[in-house]
Amino acid sequence: MDCRHTTPTLYPLSSTRDNQEYLQEFNKKVARHRIPISGTIDLTYACNLKCRHCYLGDQTGNRENRGKELGTTQWQTIIDEITEAGCLYLLITGGEPLSRKDFKQIYCHAKTRGLLITVFTNGTLITEDILDLFAEFTPKAVEVSLYGATTETYERITGVPGSYEKCLTGIRKLIDHQINVKLKTILMSLNREEFFAVENLAKEWGIKFRFDAAVFPGLNGDKTPIKLRVTAEEAIENEFSDLHRAQEWKNFFARMQKLPVRDTLYPCGAGKTHFHIDPYGSLQPCLMVKDPNLKYNLIGGSFLTGWNEVVSRIREKKVGINFTCHRCEKKSLCGFCPGFFELENGTEEVYSRYLCTMGHLRFEKIMKNDKI
Amino acid sequence: MNLMSVYQKKEDIVTRSIADETLLVPIRSQMADMQRIFALNPAAEFIWQQLDGKQKLENILEGITSNFNVEKVQAESDLQEFILRLIKEGIIEEAP
């Protein structure tokens, strides 16, 4: 008789119907034991572009701060520690991570430790060296940001002449080398006329596309970038113009409705199964968290200590009794994020009107459209 | 299946242990999606640990019948299927 426990079995870690049960159990176990299964590392805040919407602010300062960034060996040590702690999914981003001269050493170190790596890049620094690297040590995905479908629009945003062609060339070369490329864009007033043209480029190339309209305030508190936002109405119209995207929101909403309402302020994985490390060695639950009590300096410290003793404090943050969003039925549709609220409004418990409006509009779309 | 055969893990497969689960992660892979990452159940993990380039399959089979509540005929059939699967997925190779 075939006994499940004695029959040696391989479970592919993809969400096919055959092994969904295994994957669900694995994810529950990871959450139960608070394993830092996924992490983001910002290798640098320097970038060769000067995007108008960028939450990292003026590049002059970021480039000057390169001297304060973690060195190669420091990053490699951190990678060893996060792997030991159970990290599996690693996002390498920045700034522009490929602008680091030691990107290859850091990337290879992470790949050979058995991490599944996604790289976010502006696509303009895809050299033959990088292509050879990715061809041999394949990333899970490379996500390229494309801000327009014409030179004029793209470079109006990036501020660097010649960057559009470099970006397109980078994307094409990655595709030619059979790297799993994904395209994304930020929808803003400067490129709204070309949103569908960018989406069509992704379709032509046969690659996945996603976008975000919620332009962040600057991490330094500068609110200038949010003036570039399109209206929430326009953002949601674009979002639901694609049936697949609309269906994904509907399915996500249905799944979230089954979950109990919790009193934790941060319902996401930040600090529970996810961590973030900035270029200077600060470990924190996610990019946007500003609370210094949730930040730990990895220089002279250890990842596990920071994860267990400092970052874990995020679980202690509970909703206040007057918190408007606590029992909102649309909370799963607005991109609810207290970190984002704090950047925008100076406090975690005053919601973003922009995100809230988008949540309401998504709800209406889901309830009223029986085609999705 | 030749029970005298000896197999070993390929060099570019990393064994990860996360939340008491054993995962096999290829370092180099043309298919970099999640279909190439495998988790092992306890029986699979037992066999995986033995694929060290020295142990013959007959020794591994003996270990399975000693450590798991399974008849030898069934164990041999399961082992064969598992080894073939590992070969097909490019995870093991015959030892020199």
Question: What would your notes on this structure say?
Answer:
- The complex is a heterodimer of chains A (372) and B (96).
- Chain A is an alpha/beta fold.
- Chain A has a domain at 31-230 and 266-317: Alpha-Beta Barrel (TIM Barrel).
- Chain A has helices at residues 20-32, 59-64, 72-85, 103-112, 128-136, 151-158, 163-176, 195-205, 232-240, 243-257, 303-310, 338-345, 353-368, and strands spanning 10-12, 38-42, 89-93, 116-121, 141-145, 181-186, 208-212, 274-277, 282-284, 296-297.
- A nine-stranded mixed β-sheet of chain A has the order 7-6-5-4-3-2-8-9-10, covered by helices on one side.
- In chain A, strand 3 (89-93), helix 4 (103-112) and strand 4 (116-121) form a beta-alpha-beta unit.
- In chain A, helix 3 runs parallel beside helix 4 and helix 9 (232-240) packs parallel to helix 13 (353-368).
- Chain A is globular.
- By secondary structure, chain B is of the alpha+beta class.
- A three-stranded antiparallel β-sheet of chain B has the order 5-1-6. Chain B has a three-stranded antiparallel β-sheet with strand order 2-3-4.
- In chain B, a hairpin with a 2-residue loop joins strand 2 and strand 3.
- Chain B starts with 5 loop residues before the first strand and ends with a strand.
- The model of chain B has no long low-confidence stretch (mean pLDDT 89).
- At the A-B interface, strand 1 and helix 1 of A face strand 2, strand 3, strand 4, helix 1 and helix 3 of B.
